[in-house]
Structures are given as C-alpha cells and as structure tokens.
Amino acid sequence: MNIDIILSRLNKVQKTSKLNEYKALCPAHEDKNPSLSIGELSDGRILINCFAGCESKQVLDSIGLSFEDLFPEKLGDFKSEKKPFSSNHGLKLIGYESSIILACAGFLREGKELSEANFSRIVEAVSRIQNVLRVCGL
Ligand SMILES: [Zn+2]
Fold first, then answer.
1. Around Cβ 75, how many Cβ atoms within 10 Å?
2. How far is the CA of 10 from the centre of ligand 1 (A)?
C-alpha cells in the first residue's frame, strides 16, 4: 500500500524532519497532539507507532486497514514465490559480476584484445545479473 493512502485516512498529518516520516492524530484514542508516527522504509514497508501506547492493530482497525496493508504488494508476492537465494546474496553476486565486467573493460582500455572466453564471461555476467533482478521481481 502507498503511504499516501494511509495518510489520507488520518487527520492533522504533518511531515516530520526525517525523510519519509509523518505525524498525525492517532485515530485509536482521543488525540489532541499528533502522537501517531507513520514512516516508510526504503523497501516500501510502512511503520506506524502511537506514542500514547495504542496497539498498531487498534490504530489500523480504526482506519479500516490491516497489517497486510503496511506491506508493499511486491513483498506480498515474494511469500508465494520461493526465492532461490536471499536479497543480500543477490546483491553480492551483482557486485562480483560487475567487477568482472570492469576487469574486462580495463583490458579494452589498455588496448588489449578481448578474448572469446572473456567476452563469453561478460555475457554470462550480464545474464546472471538479469537473473537476480528477475527473481527479485525487478
Ligand atoms: Zn493512540
């Protein structure tokens, strides 16, 4: 769910000084000073917290939402599709494969010939990177 949809159901929404963080009146208790914080993480998950102590479930119930609504649809799809590796592993692989491409670019820059084997390795590196992106749904 987009954070804007959640914010649109809250009152007195204010942007805080932090990136992607907002404050609003908590819908689950008589709130006069905004005590609900709503933040969006870089992976699209949304965190809510009432500083007066309301449970997140109560807050969500009050605006007709559930915990699933705090997760981006993309993450929801991940549950059903089992990934053959973790995202961290995928990022490491991309880092490794890109260093191979860089090494080959270094050869070319020095005026060396790119061997058939090295060219095939670049093709393989690119296909591995694309494979990681595909599996991660990107
Ligand atoms: Zn509250």
1. 14
2. 12
